[in-house]
Design goal:
Elements (H helix, E strand, L loop, with lengths): L4 H23 L4 H4 L1 E6 L3 E7 L4 E8 L2 E12 L3 E4 L17 E8 L4 E6 L8 E5 L8
Antiparallel strand pairs: 1-2, 1-8, 2-3, 3-4, 4-5, 5-6, 6-7, 7-8
Amino acid sequence: MKMSTPIRVTGVILCAICLFTGWYMIAANYDYGMVAGTYEFRGAKESSVLLLKKDGSFFQKRSSNGKIDYAQGTWHRSGEGGIDFSEGFLEVGGVAPDSDGHTYGEVIKRLLDLIPSIVLGNDWDRGPRFHRVFLKSGKLE
C-alpha cells in the first residue's frame, strides 16, 4: 500500500517534533538526578574520581604525587548550571576552596548538550574538568 505525500510529510514532521522534544527534555535538565553519577578528572600529576549521589552527598578520591586522599560532603545546584561543593572538597587542578570553604563550579553539557561534565573554578574553558563516566566504574576504594 502506497502512502500519499501529505501523510508522509505529516509523519516526518511529527517524528521531528518528537525527536526535538526528547532532546530538549534532556538538554535543558540540570536537576539532581541528571547531574548525579560518577565523574573522573585526569591531570598531569593527579587524578580524581567524584561520585555525586541524588541525595546531595558526594564522595571523592584524589591521587596526587603518589598520595591518595578521600573526602565526602554535600553538593548543591545553584542557578541553571552552577554547582557548590561543601567544605572538605579536595583541591583539584589547582582550584582550591574559596574563603568560605566551598568549591564552586559549573555543569557543562557536551555532545548535543546531552552529557554533563563539571568544570571547577571560574574559567569554564581551561578549568579542571570532571568528565562523566558511563561504561566503566570509577573506583573510590
